[in-house]
Design brief:
54% of the residues lie in helices and 14% in strands. By secondary structure, it is an alpha/beta fold. Strands 2-3-1-4-5 form a 5-stranded parallel β-sheet, sandwiched between helices. α1 (17-28) crosses α8, α2 packs across α3 (47-68) and α3 crosses α4 (87-96). The radius of gyration is 15 Å and the shape is globular. The protein starts with 5 loop residues before the first strand and ends with a helix. The mean pLDDT is 92.
C-alpha cells in the first residue's frame, strides 16, 4: 500500500500533534492514528515504561520498528516527538504521506509540558529540554514537506491552516 494520501504530523512533545490530528481528521473526513498509542498497544506498556525498562535506545528501536510498519490510507497520523531519530520510520512515513512539522518555540514547548519523564519524552540522561529542542529541530526541518508555524495560534487556526493546505 504505497498511497501518499496521508498527513503525518511531526514536532516536539507538546506541539499539539495528537490534538490537531484528531480535529484535522474530522474536518477532512480522514481517519486518525496516534503512533504512540500503536506502540503502547503492540508492546502492552506505556511509553515511559518502555524507556525505563529498555533504555532510550531500546525505546527508539521499538518506535522506529512500529512506525516503519504503519499501513494507513486517508489518515492523519500523529507521531511521537522522537520519531525523527528513526531513519526507516521517516522514509516509510514520507512514502505514505505528506509530513507536516508543527513548529513552536522552545519556550512555548516548555510552558506546555509537565513532567517530561511521566510523559514519555525521550531524553538522554542529564539532557535539558533546550538541548533536546536544539538537537531535534534540524531533523524535523529535514523530513518536513510542510512547516507550519504554530506560535500563538489556537487549535482551530492551525486546523484551518492545514485544511486549506490539504483541501482538494
Amino acid at each position: 500500500m504505497n498511497t501518499k494520501d496521508n498527513i503525518v504530523l511531526i514536532g516536539m512533545p507538546g506541539a499539539g500533534k495528537s490534538t490537531v490530528g484528531v480535529v484535522l481528521a474530522k474536518c477532512l473526513g480522514y481517519h486518525f492514528l496516534d503512533s504512540d498509542l500503536v506502540i503502547q498497544e503492540e508492546t502492552g506498556r506505556l511509553l515511559h515504561e518502555i524507556i525505563s525498562e529498555e533504555g532510550l535506545d531500546g525505546f527508539l528501536q521499538v518506535e522506529n520498528d512500529v512506525n516503519s510498519r504503519i499501513e494507513a490510507k486517508h489518515c492523519v497520523i500523529a507521531t511521537g516527538g522522537s520519531v525523527i531519530y528513526g531513519k526507516e520510520a521517516m522514509e516509510h512515513l514520507k512514502q505514505i504521506g505528506t509530513v507536516v512539522y508543527l513548529q513552536l518555540s522552545c519556550e512555548e514547548i516548555n510552558r506546555r509540558l509537565g513532567d517530561l519523564k511521566q510523559r514519555g519524552v525521550a531524553l538522554k540522561d542529564g539532557q535539558t529540554l533546550e538541548e533536546l529542542y536544539a538537537e531535534r529541530v534540524p531533523l524535523y526541518e529535514k523530513y518536513a514537506d510542510v512547516i507550519l508555524f504554530c506560535e500563538g495560534k489556537r487549535i482551530r487556526q492551525i486546523v484551518s491552516d492545514l485544511s486549506a493546505h490539504f483541501a482538494m
